[in-house]
Specification:
- The complex is a heterodimer of chains A (367) and B (306).
- By secondary structure, chain A is an alpha+beta fold.
- Chain A is 23% helix and 32% strand.
- Chain A has 2 domains: 4-238, 3-Layer(aba) Sandwich (Rossmann fold); 244-358, Beta Barrel (OB fold (Dihydrolipoamide Acetyltransferase, E2P)), CATH 2.40.50.140.
- Chain A has helices at residues 42-50, 92-102, 119-132, 148-160, 178-195, 206-212, 230-235, 240-245; strands spanning 4-13, 16-26, 31-35, 57-62, 65-66, 77-80, 166-170, 198-203, 215-220, 223-228, 252-258, 264-267, 270-273, 287-292, 298-299, 305-314, 318-325, 328-335, 345-349, 356-358.
- In chain A, α2 (92-102) packs across α3 (119-132), α2 (92-102) runs parallel beside α4 and α3 packs across α4 (148-160).
- The two termini of chain A are 38 Å apart.
- Chain B has 306 residues and is mainly α.
- In chain B, strands 1-2 form a two-stranded antiparallel sheet.
- Chain B is globular.
- In chain B, β1 and β2 (72-75) form a beta hairpin.
- The chains are: A alpha+beta (367), B mainly alpha (306).
- The A-B interface holds A 50-52, 72-73, 77-79, 81-83, 85-89, 98-99, 102-103, 132-134, 137, 141-142, 144-145, 147-150, 153, 158, 177, 179-180, 183, 187, 190-191, 194 and B 1-9, 11-12, 15-16, 18, 198, 200-201, 203-211, 214, 219, 222-223, 225, 302, 304-306.
């Protein structure tokens, strides 16, 4: 087990900067999820940890060792690929065993030289991995004779069997169907709790990030936007990108203005309270981007904000009401059935604790 | 953790074959068979006119013996087959053909594969090398044979050796242009095979600790085994059928030392009956060798869907 530290790491392909000055300390035993849309540099960052991409600038450490120039096979990491990357000509048993066959391990303690495992040791480890991942009935099969979920578990077993310092996972659930994905999320969390190894997990799916991560690193355009627990990035997003990337449907962001007396927010159709505990209230009359999550907008007759309903989508356990505030569209989440109809008007209220303010120019959080 | 995989096969359930082979034999009804035959008629007609009928004709020619240098022919039946195929000439021709195959196939295949492995990487300008290595494929057998013929020329050639007139090296001299051409063919086909191997599998192997040599022998080669198998079979067939290289470089000489089976067939201008028998013999040899290759290698080749 080990920490992973990016110290001002960049990756450039010619003119294109895939990862820009990344500083990120992943702690020992952490389940760190790198989250972002495609092309944000998260996979490149992961592949740099693996050693599959060279590092253009900066220092990358695993534990205390700078690994910029260390061969992938000597980094003591393992990786689960999106396509699983199993060896199609080998049986499941052989696939799982494969790292043990070619690598040397410090099995006699770290002060003794690394050596190859004996046949008995290998068999024991393969048997353990197969038991943990429920693969025992399939050991003699080739990957082509397995279902997607089983292949995925073989890939996990192969990563698990060498007891690496760090597990790297590159969108490992994206080839599974929705039901299996939900189930595997829970299994991965259980596996992590059991082995305690540091996990670096790349995904574009914020549900995976919210449900599995101990911390989330949100990336966009090669830059790190925010690092924090799922609760932190949900409750206090640092900018409008993070605010709108986390949460389904995303946070509503619309223009507003500080009232002349500096006590309220004026938006088209009414007013909203200023956020609670605002340290420095922006100057009266200045324009601002207001952010409110759909689940925090409440339909209430006394609400201070009037909107026009454009559509109501009923999802069974809740409704999503799309409404207009001037040119902007907001989505309101209401439990159960909604009494509203398209074309009708609606009054909304918000708890001051759930109002977010962002600078309209820099998109950064004000409060 | 306990896992109940939604799509998992039940324990001990038989593995389902690949979809293409999952249909049991004997389940086609008469209507389907009739329709299938109807669709096959055009190709069967072409095969009949250009292969089955000429082959039947060839078989029957083999039963006629030439009289007075081909002035007339006597029907002698199966005896001529027994006599010619059991004779010295067939055996020596077969031995020469085999030597030609043993020179051209392994060298062409191994060199082409090594070049393909070397050229299968993302480098600037690699396309130039890929084009150069595959260029031998674009020249005809006659052209490449003439090139080598001049390379051997004792006065102005590059090698300035007289391999083509040495009984010991004549077959090797005729084999060189074939090796050169097989190299290009192997290169192109193996390169295509390598490009079909997923990058992620090779990356997984790197992370697992496979070095370059082990990646080649334990991952790459097994994964492209079907391609190598295909190449082996067609190169052996090409080898047994080679003619122009021998005709241009050695003319079967010196003293018949490089007369392969095909060349001996070619020489039977006075005796079509014997030529027909030798042709049938060559056909059978090629067929048997190919079957043996499939029987031995097929069991060791992974086709990805087993």
């Amino acid at each position: 087990m080990a920490s992973v530290t990016f110290d001002a790491v960049s990756k450039r392909y010619g003119e294109v900067t895939a990862v820009d000055d990344l500083n990120l300390a992943i702690e020992d035993g952490e389940f760190m999820v790198l989250l972002g849309p495609s092309g944000c540099g998260k996979t490149t960052a992961l592949r740099m940890i693996a050693g599959l991409e060279d590092i253009s600038d900066g220092k990358l450490s695993i534990g205390d060792e700078v690994v910029n120039d260390v061969d992938p096979s000597r980094r003591d990491i393992s990786m689960v690929f999106q396509s699983y990357a199993l060896y199609p000509h080998m049986t499941v048993q052989r696939n799982i065993e494969s790292p043990l066959l070619v690598r040397s391990y410090h099995v006699d303690g770290n002060d003794k030289p690394a050596r190859k495992l004996t046949k008995a040791e290998r068999d024991e480890r393969v048997a353990e991995a197969a038991r943990v991942l429920d693969l025992e009935p399939y050991l003699k099969r080739k990957p082509a004779a397995l279902s997607g979920g089983q292949r995925q578990r073989v890939a996990l077993a192969r990563a698990f069997v060498g007891r690496p310092k760090v597990f790297l996972m590159d969108e490992p659930l994206s080839n599974l169907d929705a039901k299996l994905r939900a189930q595997t999320r829970i299994e991965l969390v259980e596996l992590h709790a059991r082995v305690g190894t540091t996990v670096v997990y790349v995904t574009h799916d914020q549900v995976e990030a919210m449900t599995m991560a101990t911390r989330v690193a949100v990336m966009s355009m090669g830059k790190l936007q925010q690092v924090g627990t799922p609760q932190e990035v949900y409750a206090r997003p640092v900018n409008t990108f993070v605010a709108q990337f986390i949460g389904t449907p995303p946070m509503n962001c619309f223009p507003g203005r500080i009232s002349a007396d500096g006590t309220r927010l004026e938006v088209e159709g009414g007013t909203l309270p200023l956020p609670a505990g605002l340290v420095a209230v922006p100057a009266a009359g200045s324009t601002i981007t207001v952010g409110v999550r759909p689940e925090h907008l409440q339909v209430s007759a006394e609400g201070s904000l009037g909107v026009e309903v454009r559509a109501v989508e009923w999802l069974g356990h809740e409704c999503l009401i799309s409404a207009s505030i001037g040119d902007a569209t907001v989505v309101v989440r209401e439990a159960g059935m909604s009494a509203s109809e398209a074309g009708s008007s609606l009054q909304l209220s918000v708890d001051p604790a759930n109002v977010h303010l962002f600078d309209p120019n820099t998109t950064l959080r004000i409060g | 953790m306990s896992v109940t995989d939604a799509t998992a096969l039940p324990d001990g359930a038989p593995v389902v074959d690949a979809p293409t082979t999952s249909r049991r034999r004997g389940t086609y009804d008469a209507k389907e068979v009739g329709l299938a035959l109807l669709f096959l008629v055009p190709s069967l007609a072409v095969f009949a006119v250009f292969f089955y009928l000429p082959f039947a004709r060839l078989l029957s020619w083999g039963t006629y013996e030439s009289v007075r240098g081909g002035a007339s022919y006597n029907q002698v039946g199966i005896d001529q087959y027994r006599e010619v195929l059991g004779g010295h000439e067939f055996r020596i021709g077969l031995w020469h053909s085999l030597q030609f195959v043993l020179w051209t196939v392994p060298f062409g295949l191994v060199l082409g594969t090594l070049l393909a492995v070397a050229a299968h990487r993302r480098l600037k300008g690699i396309k130039v090398f890929q084009a150069i290595f595959s260029s031998t494929l674009a020249s005809s057998v006659a052209v490449s044979s003439v090139i080598f013929f001049f390379l051997f020329n004792p006065a102005v050639g590059f090698f300035r050796v007289s391999w083509q007139s040495s009984p010991r090296w004549a077959i090797f001299a005729a084999a060189l242009p074939a090796i050169w051409q097989n190299l290009g063919l192997s290169f192109v086909i193996v390169l295509a095979g390598l490009q079909a191997v997923p990058d992620e599998v090779m990356e997984a192997a790197r992370l697992d600790g496979y070095g370059a040599w082990r990646r080649l022998t334990r991952i790459t080669l097994p994964l492209i085994a079907p391609v190598l198998m295909f190449l082996l079979v067609i190169l052996v067939i090409y080898g047994f059928q080679a003619f122009a290289q021998i005709d241009i470089i050695t003319k079967g000489g010196p003293g018949g030392a490089s007369e392969t089976l095909v060349f001996k067939i070619f020489k039977q201008t006075q005796d079509y009956g014997k030529g027909a028998v030798l042709s049938v013999g060559l056909f059978c040899v090629t067929l048997v060798v190919t079957f043996i290759q499939f029987a031995i290698l097929d069991r060791r080749v992974h086709y990805g869907d087993e």
